[in-house]
Amino acid sequence: MTVRPVTDMPRRPESTIPRKNRLRALDGLRLIAALMVAAYHYGGRGGEVTGAWAGSAAHQFPTLHSYFAYGCLGVQVFFVISGFVICMSGWGRPLKSFFASRASRLLPAYWAAVLIVSAVFALPMVAYKALSPSDTLANLTMLQQPLGVDRVLGVCWTLWAEIRFYALFALCVVLPGASRRRVILFCAGWTLAAAIAQGARMPLLDIVLMPEHAPFFVGGVGLYLVHRDRRDVYAWGIVAVSFLIGQHYAVRSLWNASDPHAFAQRSSTGIVLVVAFGFVAVAAIALGLLNRADWRWLTVAGALTYPFYLVHEHLGWVVIHALHITLGLPSAVTFGLTVVSMLLLAWLLNRFVEKPLTPGLRAALAGARAR
Fold first, then answer.
1. Residue 128: DSSP 8-state
2. How far apart are CA 45 and CA 5, in angstroms?
3. Which phi and psi angles does 83 have, rounded to 5°?
């Protein structure tokens, strides 16, 4: 009798294996998520941006500010995209190559953004306070949040979440070797462990397992499994459970209808719909429904997203104040020109920082030998 070896997954017909081409629709979705966050920072919240407008952004956008307030959920959309992309990029890649790819992708633009924002805030004509040289240097490590150091970039808290996700995925999936079974166990294990951490209320578990963010990363990983095989029931189960838990956390943390002092009253239904948009949009890409969105400019949009995300908030305050208060431009014109100027700065960072430095840094890290 011939004993057949137990395999991780039945061999699928070649037609069901996804192509290795770039998913340009995913680049477009990245930019949409970044613009959502920018709309929130410019017109959907209070805080420092109030000084830039010389008054509440709600007065600048009396109708739109209520919609802009939902823009903060662009972060959750980013996390779903990240789960998909990290699983795709880590599949079949050795640990050193995975680390080199992630570090070289994140660090050059991040270092440049920290230095640029610090330099601009140090100018005497800028009203915003720059951090001390020591705190600025600590920010270059990307570990300022757990170290308790003030942040140069307001958005960098999301990078701390990304780094922890990369570490978990690298240790549990990339290091032993990615496979369908291992990825499913990773998703199920992280989901259960995050729920336990939420119930245990232990700070260390919260830091490591990120209960509020885990469903979005896990959902994105599940959607990559769907991309590999749309008939994978386990993958769809991972996506469904992740959405159900993720919308719960989003509503719990962002629904402020009971707060009379809230900048804008988000509804729980609105929050659920935006979270659903993130999952459905990535699912549509995973299933190939948006393959026709294969325009080259989407690749450019995807390349601009990360540097735009890094610089848009704090430098946007400076541009808003210059255009609206100093030059007296209308709110809508100021909003549009600020977004365009931040996209232009993102293009410059991509052209003169990321493109020259990323390949060299990746090659250096991938070729370095541990002693």
1. S
2. 58
3. -60, -45
Q: What's phi and psi for 68, nearest 5 deg?
A: -60, -30
Q: Are 323 and 56 in contact (CB under 8 A)?
A: no
Per-residue pLDDT tens digits for 41-80: 999 998 889 999 999 999 999 999 999 999 999 999 999 9
Query: Which tokens belong to 154?
Result: 């307001």
Are 225 and 234 in contact, with CB atoms under 8 Å apart? yes
Residue 289 contacts residue 25 (beta carbons within 8 Å)? no
Sign of CA dihedral 24, 29, 34, 38: positive
Single-letter code of the amino acid located at 200 = A
Quickly list H helices, the chain.
24-43, 49-53, 57-60, 65-68, 74-90, 95-121, 133-139, 144-147, 157-169, 180-200, 203-209, 214-228, 233-254, 268-286, 296-320, 331-349, 355-367
CA distances in angstroms from 47 to 51, 53, 205, 300, 354, listed in the order given: 8, 11, 31, 32, 31
User: pTM here?
Assistant: 0.91
